[in-house]
Amino acid sequence: MTALLSLENLSVHAGGKALVSNLSLSLNRGERLGLIGESGSGKSLTSLAATGLLPTGLSASGSAILAGKQVIGASDRELNKLRGTAVAIVFQEPLTALDPLMRVGKQVAEPLARRAQRDGAPLSGAALDKAVLALLDEVALPDPQRMATSYPHELSGGQRQRIAIAMALACKPDLLIADEPTTALDVTTQAEILGLLDRLVRERNMALLFISHDLPVVANTVERVVVLRQGETVEAGNVAEVFGNPRHDYTKSLLAAARRLDDAMEGRA
Amino acid sequence: MSTATMTAPADKKSHSLALKAGLLLVGIHVFVGLLTLVWLPYDPTAMAGGRLEGPSLLHWLGTDRLGRDLFTQMMIGSRIALIVGIGAVTIGAIIGVTLGLLAAFASKWLDDALAATLDILIAFPTLLIAMLVVAASDTANLWSAIIALGIALSAIVARLTRILAKRVLVMDYITAARTSGSSWPKIVAIHILPNIWPTLSVNFALQFGLAVIAEASLSYLGLGAPPPNASWGRILQEAQGTVYTAPLGAIAPGIALVSLAIGVNLLADGLRDTIDPTRRAR
To answer: Domain named ABC transporter: which ranges (chain A) (predicted)?
Structure first.
C-alpha cells in the first residue's frame, strides 16, 4: 500500500533562501507523526506545502504526494479536489480560524454540505442541520443546539477549537493536520482537546500530522517524530527512541529545556 | 457566553439613539423627496409671489429673486440630492468594490499598478475629477454629474476594499475554507464580503454625504443639473447675490445639506452596530 502522504526532498524557498530543505517523511492511515521544532523551523510551511497552500512569494520543490497525487506544481483546480476530501487542517489560533461574522453552525455546515455534494449525496435543510448537530456532539460540545446558533466570540477558546475540529472532520479527511492545535489554550483545555483528537483519529482511522513545539504534548500524542531546525531535519524516528536517546545536540537541548521547566515546576510545588 | 448576554445598557442606548436620529433625518428627506413626485405647494418655475419676500404663511421660506417659492425649490432639492447620493454611491460601490477585490487577488505587479493608479486618482479632489468627467461629456446634466461623481468616488472605495480584503485574505478561516475545498467566488461571497461590509457600509454613508455636497458644488459652478432643476447647490448660487437682503436662500440649502449628510452617517453607524454581531454583543 502506498503512503497517504509522502514527502521526498521537499524544499520551500522564499527568493533564494531555503526555509525548508530536503524534508522526507511518509505517513499511512492510522499513523501519527509529530513535526517538532522551535518557531520558524518550517513546521507550518511544510504542512502548507503538502496541501499546496503556500502563500504567494514562496515556492516548493521536490515531491509531495498526497493520496496518490503530486501536489507540487499541481493547478489550483486539481488541488481543490484533494482539499476537503484527502486532507483537512486544524489551526493554532481558533479565534482567527473561524469567521467572526458567521454563526458556527453555518461554518460547520459549509464543508459538510460540500463533502456530501462530492460524495454524490447532497445534504440540505433539516438533514444538514442534523448532521451539523451530530458533528458538534462528536467533538463533545455541550448543548450543540445552542452552540450552532452562537458566534465565535461568544464561545470559549476550547469551544472554538472544538468547532474548528468539527469543521475539519466535516471534510471526512484521510489525513488530519493539526498545526499547534493546543498552543493557544490553557493546560486543562489542552488535555481535553488532545484527548478528543486522540479519540477521533482512532475512531475514524485517520492519519495525523501533529505540529508542535511542545515536547510533552508530542510525546503523548504521536508514535513517530521528525525534529526540524531551521528547515533541516535533524532527527527522525520513534518517539521513545528520539526522546529517550537523542543523538543530535539540538534535540538534546530541546529536551533539556523541557526538563528544566519540569524541575522548576516541581521545585515550586 | 456571559459576554454575549451581558450588554452595556448605556452603549446599546446610544447605538439605537444614533439609529433613530439617522432614520428621522433621512426619513424626512425621503418623505419630502417622494412627496415632490405627486404634490408641490407651487409650480417651481412660476412666479408665485413678490421678489425676495421674507417668510410668511404663504411662502414658508420666502421667495427668491425671481419670485419663485423657496420651500418648493428646497423640496425638489431633496429629491435631487437623494438621486445624486444613491446614484453616485451605487456606481462608486460597483466599480470600486470590483476593482478593489481584483487588486486584492491580483498578482503582485497588477496589484501594484492598480494601487498606484488609485493613489494618483485619490490625490485629485473628488470634485476636480467629477468636473473633468462632466467637461468631457457633451452636456452637463444631472446624470452626467452622477456618473462623474460615481467614478470619482470609486477610487476611494476601491482602495478601501483592497486593504480590507487583503486583511481578511490572510486570516486562518480563509485558509481553512480553502483546505476544505471552497472555490474563490464562494469564499468572496460568504467570507470576504460579509467581513468587509461593516466598514464599507459606513464608508458608503460618508461617500453619500460627499456626493451630495459635491453635486451642490457642481451645480453651484453650473456643471450640475441645469435650470430649472432646483438642486441645493443651484439655490445657494442664486441666493449668493442677495444673501444680505434674503439670507434664508443661503441658510436653507446649507441646513438641508448638513442634515442629510449627518442623517446618512448616523443611519450607517446605527445599522452597522445592529448588524455586526461582534459589536452588538458589546
So the answer is: 5-255
| Contact present, A87 and A66 (Cβ < 8 Å) | yes
Alpha-carbon distance of B270 to A183, in angstroms, equals 38
- Is the predicted pLDDT of residue B263 greater than 80, yes or no? yes
Q: Give the closest-approach CA distance of A226 to chain B in angstroms.
A: 23
Domain count for chain B: 1
Domain membership flag for residue B8: no
| Model ipTM value | 0.81
**What is the pLDDT averaged over residues B12-18?**
70
* Three-state secondary-structure class, residue A66: strand
Residue B42 counted as domain residue: no
Q: Which domain holds residue B83?
A: 16-35+48-280
Q: Could you read off the pLDDT of A124-170 as tens digits, one per residue?
A: 889 999 999 999 998 989 899 999 999 999 999 889 999 999 999 99
Instruction: Compare CB distances from B181 to A80, A92, A154 and report the shortest one's residue.
Output: A80
Closest CB to B180 among A84, A99, A153: A84
- Rounded CA separation B280/A230 (Å): 45
The grid cell for B282 is: 458589546
Q: What is the pLDDT of residues B154-171, one digit of tens each?
A: 999 999 999 999 999 989
